[in-house]
Protein: GPI inositol-deacylase
Amino acid sequence: SEFNGRGIKPVDFYAVDFNEDFSAFHGPTLDSQIAYTAAAIRYILSRYPPNTQIIVMGHSVGGIVGTALLPSPDISALITMSTPHMLPPVRFDSRIEEIYARNSRILREDETPILSLCGGATDTLVLSESCVIRDSDQPSGGLYRRTVFTSALQGTWTGVGHLEMVWCHQVRWRVARAALELGGAVSARDAVAAQRGRVLDRWLGDGVPVSDEENVELRHGTYETLPQGMHLVLKNPHGKRTYLLPLVRADGEGPRTFVLYVSRGAISSIAPHHAPDLQVSIQLCVPSPARTDGAELSVPTMCTPLRPNVLKLLPSPLPGRPFPVPNEGSDESEGVVLFEGEISSDVRGWIGVSINAGGQEGGGWVVGGFDRREIVKRDVVSLSDLILGTVHIPLTTAGGEGGLRTHVHIPRVPLNALLVYKLVPDFTDSSSCADAIFPPLLMHVSQPSEVHYYPLRHDDPVWLHSHSTAPYVTSLEFNPEHHGLNLTIYSYGYDCADPVG
Structure:
């Protein structure tokens, strides 16, 4: 019924089986596969009404075949899985080089939306660096290019092997859902590519753009104002109410960041797969100019939506269980929605958190507040320090209620496919995190398109793989500030101490 109401029709799937020919080793064989696939598409579309388009999905070298079919008015989008876009597995003949050179131009110039799904270090056949294509920010009229590692894919959150990519359930159902939605992209010709890009970002991305939210009217008795600096903590929320958190003064000239976690609920379109009817929205409540002269601000009657800088689903590993569960992966219904929004330092007023949980308790929770922590930088740590011994990085808790997140940036250590770093959490009180509302979760960003999540448990080592550069692979350019190890710890609990090493 969900699809029928939106005019989305069923999707027909066709498979091209090359009988496991070693096309990666032989250019003429790859040429014949490209020609055969192009002929198959022409025949398939001849059985459909005019102007029908097809979505191409390619696994491994099949992604190279799919890319080589472009440009084509018959192809609406290309999804590749575990495809070595940047580097051929072997170089046995010049024809392979010619095909890769042509595909490189297609990736730079063709208007067809292209998304590359990568398995990361778990894929032992295709290097992570080879699977990455240069992302675009998709400006108006621009190209859509995305690389998404399965370790960052919402609901998957783990590396996926080369063959497993085609049957891993957490990946498969999202690819199928994206195909259904792509079939319903019927915008005007100049906007259809952008619409298809939004579909791919929604179902095969690490967070999605927020949908339009409505203003919230504050009426007497429908809201509650929290004391200055107090975190919002709601367990088993029910009913409908708005909570106002006064904007704290900025420590510097930069913006303030509001962080909110929601368990078993939704913010905009982001929610666990089987979330109950808990809906949360975040607003900025600014008093009218006439009311800002006095020492005490008056609560406005209307609040406007606060646009997020980050809005995505975080994994919520179960205490005492491995993450991800071997041979099972992750369960998307266990996720926690993360919202991060910035407010200019010169704005006065409140952040409004509106809760609509219906009449029944769903067992979830909502935690939010202002993040006052600065990025912890360790410029003195170098590769030689790590080779010669262990480096301890102490993290301190800001405030008595515990922090919401902590950024750790170690800029001087190199990132390379040949290097793996070992991190061992050391809590001052290892039992204090057992009752935390949201136990510590580490996010490691190796490059803009590769994100890994790890639960932080006392003396349980975490292995940080870095894939920014590799032998014989051209490094993709990205912000120099991202060089080195970039770590973020998400957590909340009154008694959960920070890791100190």
